[in-house]
Design brief:
Elements (H helix, E strand, L loop, with lengths): L1 H30 L17 E5 L2 E10 L3 E8 L5 E10 L11 H4 E4 L3 E5 L4 E8 L8
Antiparallel strand pairs: 1-2, 2-3, 3-4, 4-7, 5-6, 6-7
Length: 138
């Protein structure tokens, strides 16, 4: 009788442990899956790149780049509406500069400023917009 009870207890504990492991693996797999970029609206220029993640982002077009500033056009991800066409200046970037060939690797997101992040290079800084921004008639 005691061995039967012990057998059931071990079975229940093993089942709980295996279920917990399966749940953890499923949750980890679910939240680490890459997501595809959204469809690019027809009014967004072909050169614009999607910067963001599964929870949202923006289409960003690099217009020009110098040592002191970078000009971007930023568009809404869902309808391509132009949000901002402005020069951005480096803020606390300690000499780090974007290039036209690698900017998409370093720009993390846009939220009133452009956040630049590169863990391997130790870069974590911002590009702040210079106002007044460029004006574009519709």
């Amino acid at each position: 009788m005691k061995s039967k009870i012990l057998f059931y207890i071990i079975g229940i504990i093993s089942g709980i442990i295996l279920s917990a492991i399966a749940a953890i693996l499923y949750i980890d797999w679910t939240f680490t899956q890459p997501c595809a970029d959204p469809d690019k609206p027809s009014n967004v220029p072909p050169a614009a790149a999607y910067i963001g993640g599964c929870d949202g982002g923006h289409w960003m077009e690099l217009v020009s780049i110098t040592d002191k500033k970078v000009r971007f056009r930023i568009y809404r991800d869902w309808n391509g509406e132009l949000l901002l066409d402005a020069d951005f200046k480096y803020d606390e970037c300690a000499g780090f500069r974007l290039t036209s060939s690698d900017w998409t690797k370093h720009v993390a997101f846009f939220e009133n400023y452009i956040h630049i992040y590169d863990h391997s290079a130790g870069v974590n800084c911002k590009l702040r917009p210079v106002y007044p921004a460029y004006f574009r008639e519709k």
